[in-house]
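ARCHIVE CARD
Drawer: 12
Card no.: 0347
Subject: one protein chain, sequence and derived structure
Cross-reference: see card 0346
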Amino acid sequence: MARRNDHSHQEIREMALDNVKLFLNEHSHHELSLRKLAKSIGYVPSTLVNIFGSYNLLLLRSIAQTLDELMLQISQGIENSATPEEALKAIAYCYYDFAQQQPNRWKLVFQHNMNGEALPEWQENRINQMMSILERMIFTINSTTTHEDIVETSRVIWAGVHGITLLSLDDLLFSATPIDGHKLIDNLLLNYINQWKLH
């Protein structure tokens, strides 16, 4: 077991979050515990609680890292897009591809429960940033509609892409032949955006 002064709080923080990532490369977050994580870095659970505030907040910091990585990929996808429609597809593809590459980290984002604790502002800001990007792309495609319609449309598209992503991950599309998730996303966006332009 490491001594109290072997590492700074920042170093322990980074070690813990790095080990969460490593664990989730092979296992579900349901198999992880505060005690198991603390042991993996040579500290006692109370040390991590002292640094992060709680196990819930520790996991939330890991989720924040996941969202930051996803946002970076989304930003790059948007930069490489020539039209708002291409940018919207890039956002959806990034979302889907990240989940395929990091399924356990992606699932933790949506399965984590704060158990009654308030969501910290720093996490709310991340979520709002992602939704704002989606809303901005939709507004660019049809700028004549109301803000309420833009918000509603963004959530419909997000829900559709999320559903495709989740069902693909869990192999619940119930098809005798493999289905390309990108093609499902293309179908969703093509039909919905064409209708949105006429809205």
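Annotation on reverse: Residues 161 and 185 are 6 Å apart (CA to CA). DSSP finds nine helices and no strands in the chain.
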